[in-house]
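Work Package 3 (structural annotation) set out to generate three-dimensional models for the target panel prioritized at the project kickoff. During this period the team completed the workflow that converts sequence records into discrete structure tokens, so that structures can be stored uniformly alongside our sequence database. As a representative example, we reproduce one entry of 599 residues exactly as it appears in the project archive.
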Amino acid sequence: MEFKNVAFGPTQTIKTYNPDESILFRLNSELKPFPKTITDRLLEWSLRQPEKTFIAQRNQEGIWQELSYADTYQQMCSIAQHLLNMGFEKNDTVVILSENSLEHALLALASVHVGIPYSPISPAYSLVSEDFSKLRHCLEKMTPKLVFVQSEQVFERAIRFIENTFPEIEILVSQGEKFPNISSWRHSTITEAVEQAHQKVTGDTVAKILFTSGSTGLPKGVTNTQQMWCANLQQITQSFPFMQKQAPVFIDWLPWNHTFGGNHNFGLALHNGGTLYIDDGKPSTKGIEETVKNLREISPTAYFNVPKGFEMLIPYLEKEESLRNTFFKNLQIIFYAGASLAQPIWNKLEELAIRTIGVKVPIITGLGCTESGPSALFANWGGAFSGLLGVPVAGLEVKLVPLGDKSEARYRGANVTKGYWRNPEATVQAFDEEGFYKTGDAVKFLDENNPDKGLIFDGRIAEDFKLSTGTWVNVGVMKTKIISSGSPIIQDVVIAGLDQDYIGLILFLNTDACCQLTGHTTAVCTSELYGHSSITTFIESWMKEFNTHATGSSTSIGKVIIAHEPPSIDKGEITDKGSLNQRAVLANRQDLVHQLFHS
């Protein structure tokens, strides 16, 4: 079955062997010019298509509130004027605690436009956290002059914490009466000071700080310069030139405090003169209803999500023909990130596309990280598969460095960070002697004789471990197989077994799928739900089937245990995008690890 005809960028590569046995891998295509700042694109589109909607969000009545390119530019400049009036000094910054919103977008763009570093902080640090330890850490690193929250009421606890701990910080809100309201900033008089400040901004000016939890410790702030962001948007567009031929339309929930949502999706819409509809839903029992409501109205040209989001969307696409028609009508690609997409989900998406429009829609992924802006590689062609990472983006050098029996991917290019915000020690450790960023991702060529077929994922260097037999366990590859074969019951997994005789698993189950299998409601306690005979029978059968395909102790499961407590964001076990931190879970759940190997 053929794929939809989509304009993709070149994939011819150059592979060079170095004397030290490392390999230099790059695209045989030059990076084209890109703007100095992302707001230069906003000015360009405000002149070329002033009335076109740039960004939209439903209000409390459910009506789409739209901002045109011209309105966005004018309101951005008005807010920038207020920032300048506040007298920001060298070490002052702006911090945004709220979810995606029109006001969030305007304040972020205003900060970028006049060269004030800003940081969107995970809302979970304010709304879910009990001790505010990560919020405190981020605020101490950022030294903000101004903190913005969407709703004074929703963020009441966090605001009170800030007032008590950082009384010098000024609070700005969109909803509330106690603090200044950003609405009064959006239409005020703009002076020449705004343009003068903008002219001082260079490619090396810091645009934003994105905090990433990493594998250990407190969040690290990844410095995103103006050049880094704009270069990567041009690289992505060259990989997907259809976005230039047809202005993109996105409906997206991914949080802007993550590089995928904030740099990639938000940035691509603006870079290419498209329209971004903010989806206030998310992959949860309640949130998916809002996402589906939006998709019944909006036909995206590209749809981005995490694997869990696609898994939750599929039942609705199967049941509603009109939803399928709207969803696939203009769709050029389906793009996933954050984790591996289980093969059953992949197959179902292709099947639904064929049923609806008669051809498959290319399912795309790649490899990247916050430090690379985010995109480093893409498998930008039809017929890819889970685990295929593709080829480098234009202008990026990828160095494959042998480490034991694996090769680590390292990056150097205009889209790569200069380092970590106010953390010189971590910055020095992150780069090698040639200035390549050390990702910790292990990769290998799909075909050593044809590098144009791209790289495939080979696990995380730091996560792999040896059993007592001395045999290495490839955690990343094994995790992908476990989630794919155990879907939808098994939602995520942490793999244990360092210096043990066998591999043990801590399983995190999908509560909704378990309820469906057992006939329970979501109100039942997890111990009763996970202890149901239907669940235990499924896990036993799945494990037996999984082990029939094992090739030895490094790919065979010895014992599993089900985690009854969800992963904790305060303890660093999970991000608000849903990615598990293997090392943190093992460190925090020593009781479960003990049960795996000593009971």
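The radius of gyration is 24 Å.
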